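TOPIC: backbone geometry
CONTENTS: sequence, structure tokens:
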Amino acid sequence: MKKLNCIIVVLSLCFFSGFSQTEPEMGYGKGYRINFNDDGTKYMRFISWGQFWAQYNGDAPDGTEKLSLSVRRARILSWIKFSDKFSLVTHFGLNSLNGNNTSPLGSQGSNADATQLFFHDFWGEYKVAKDFYVGAGLHYWNGISRLNNQSTLNMLTLDNNRSSWSTIGLSDQFARHIGVYVKGKLGKVQYRFALNEANRNTLDNDGTPRDVGTATVYRGREVLGSDEAGKVIQGYVDVNLLDQESNALPYKVGTYMGSKKVFNIGAGFFSHPSGVVLPNGEGDDVLLFAADAFYDAPIGDNGSAITAYATYQNNDYGEDFFLGPYATGNMIYGHVGYVLPGDKTKTRFQPYVAYSTRSIDAIDDNANQFKLGANIFFTGHHSKLSFDYTNDKVGDGDATGVFTVQAMIFL
């Protein structure tokens, strides 16, 4: 334990010794921006962020490393506004770069698992009318829930609830589909709907039998040669009962730290007809839907704030489908965070707790996860240190506990 504490201290000093703890929390504004005209209506904006992990798993099997270091995310995003009507978003980077998937020369080469740069988003958008837009490309205008549209810049918990990114690698490329979408506002109601292509290559399209249950396999657009299997329909609608959130970009904020007073109630769905193959060779539909609520508000005038979120999700991936965080059944998830009182221009502390329970039809049992952690904000989300302990238990299996430290920089 002493060794682990020393590692945490060293990481903290290395990543944050150069940051002022008295700089205003949003001192970096809106990133680097180039204006193409005098009134600033045509511009290009850049943002970049990195998240660095040290993770300790005391329950790792004998003979495997208990401590791992990784680059969790390295991203660059540009947003170009050609006019009031046209915009283009380009977002690329990498995820989970570690000692197992780096490559000797920075390319895949002989390492088929090498993680390198790829496009996360690339879409163009046209403003049809006031508060109504149409777009196309590789996009993140997702359905189901707020967490399925989560930004990785400002999460409350150290990372998103994995099971809420409900289609990663099954029908999409890292939570993004190629397709067309519409988005807009009607009073206090915001909406997003999309018609997308499904992946041909999915996480389990080799048909390998699962360890439990039947071998229902997600085959994306290849299932049975069916035309229906190639398209996905999804959408999400939420009512902004208090302050109105921006929908200029699809990424939902995880915590405002009390800078806004937000209370939203939403619901969404994901439909993929004939998206899976059952053990008898027949196709089956995939249908997910969820309802959720999000609250973020200051508490009094002492700098404290609360963030709370809860969701119920019904998952039908086909009969007895079970692949890690994806499983046919139901899920209930919630988290709460509290910004401690203090000067908003100085270092701020935000402890949090999260819990989820998932029913898994394939094993006729539940998977439960408990998270306890805290964020230390040096300059808001622009520079922060996060600590997280996660305890997982699936069915009758042994519980596993993992402790993670994350250092994040966002400019």
